[in-house]
Every structure is written in C-alpha cells, then in structure tokens.
TrEMBL record:
Ranges for domain HD/PDEase: 38-170
Protein name (record): HD domain-containing protein
Listed NCBIfam families: HDIG
UniProt xrefs under InterPro entries: HD/PDEase_dom, HD_domain, HDIG_dom
Superkingdom field: Bacteria
Top-level taxonomy: Bacteria, Pseudomonadati, Pseudomonadota, Alphaproteobacteria, Rhodospirillales
Length: 245
C-alpha cells in the first residue's frame, strides 16, 4: 500500500530554521570551494521556489503557505554536496541529509520534487547510477503524492538559476541545456499547471508574475535579505524538530 506524505501533520522546521538550514548548505558549498556566483544564483533559485510555492498555496485557500515556503527552501538541500563529484543525485543526498539532521518528515520533498511522474524509467534519468535509480524508483512506488509535493514540482518549473520563466520558456531552456526533446515531460509539466488551475480556480502563471512584480521594490528586510545573511543554524545534527503548525 502507498503512503501519503502528510506534511500538515508532520514535524517540520519553522520558517526561520528552514532559512538557516538553506543558508548553511550554501555557505558549506562556498567554504569547500564552489563557484560563489553559481552558488549565489542557486540561492536565489531556492528562495524563488519558496516564494512561488508560498503564494500559490495562499491563493488556494486550502494549502498552508508556511509549509509550502519551508518545503520550497529545503527541496534542493541535497546540493550541499557536488553531485558531479559524489555521483549521488541531489534528490537522494537531500533525503538522507534531512533525515540525518532530524527532519525526516520533510525529507520526501527532496525526492518527489524531482519526478513529476513517479513511474520513472532509467532512460529518462541518465545521471542516476543503477543504485540511485533503484532507490528512487523503490521510494516512489511506496509514496503517493499530495498537493504539497505537486506544488514544489510546479514552483520549481518557474525558476531556473536566478531567472523567473514561464513554463514554456523553462522547457525550451531545458532543451537547449540538455539537448533533449521530451514531449512526454512537456505534457506532464503543463498538466501539472492545469491541475492547480482547475482544482483551485487559479491562474498560476499570473500568480508567479504578480509575486515578482511585488518583490521588485521589496524592502531590504524581506526574506531574500535574511536568506543571504543569516549564519547557519548551530548544531544542526542535534537540532530539535519544531512544528510550524
């Protein structure tokens, strides 16, 4: 039987703790010699995904914006290590990392955000070695997505590096970068957008546009500033689980 990730009943980090965790892993990458510009752009991506998810959640009137924001900040935590060096996909690295630091209830988002369709095929994920693919496939067979999993997948589609893109622009950029044309993936991406539009009577692309017009002249003390200057949370390994509910 499949299990549903019930984030609303889970113990998750608070917003400020999630910001500290995210900031900490970016600082960790810089400390170990990663290109600062690339890491900075990735930090903006993580923040953007969190804000998109938060604002869409708020507009649904059903989903918890704080949960959406926290999951958005943590979805790429597996990039604490360079997967081109470790050969471990960031989805699995992140899943293991969040469990290690005391937030196992948040860990599934690291894997689910990467797969719009949980019925994955090895040929669609050539960067996954046999062991990693087997783990991801086995995990996804046991889990049923809820709308938070789908929301982070959707928010991730609108952000690439420091850019905010339409889904069409993002898919076209992926083709240029990966030299692939996966029409099946395109259909799934647009179906995901349409799912939220229909279920919650939204225009998610307009929500995204409004989100970043709203933040164009944001005050210095907004979440973006906090995200970039906070020191990492102390003693993360021993961090107590805190509920944001």
């Amino acid at each position: 039987m499949s299990a549903v990730n019930n984030y609303e009943k889970a113990y998750l980090p608070s917003r400020i703790t999630a910001v500290r965790i995210a900031n900490g892993y970016l600082q960790e990458r810089i400390y170990h010699g990663s290109n600062q510009r690339i890491i900075f752009e990735h930090g903006i991506h993580v923040f953007n995904v969190a804000k998109i998810a938060e604002n869409i959640a708020r507009q649904t009137g059903k989903l918890n914006p704080d949960i959406a924001y926290v999951l958005g900040l943590l979805h790429d935590i597996g990039r604490i290590k360079d997967e081109t060096v470790t050969k471990v996909p960031h989805s699995i690295e992140g899943y293991n990392y969040l469990r290690k630091i005391g937030f196992p209830d948040a860990a599934p988002i690291c894997i689910t955000h990467n797969f719009i369709d949980p019925d994955i095929k090895a040929e669609d994920f050539p960067t996954y070695d046999e062991k990693s693919f087997a783990f991801a496939r086995g995990f996804l067979k046991k889990v049923r997505y809820n709308d938070y999993d789908r929301l982070i997948q959707l928010a991730d589609l609108f952000s690439r590096g420091k850019e905010i893109l339409s889904i069409r622009q993002r898919l076209d950029k992926n083709k240029q970068f990966y030299h692939i044309k996966n029409l099946s993936y395109e259909d799934k991406a647009f179906n995901l957008r349409d799912y939220f539009n229909r279920k919650y009577n939204l225009d998610v692309e307009q929500i995204v546009a409004d989100t970043f017009n709203m933040h164009k002249h944001a005050h210095k003390s907004d979440d973006r500033a906090v995200f970039l200057i906070l020191p990492p949370a102390p003693n993360l390994i021993n961090a107590r689980k805190r509920s944001i509910i």
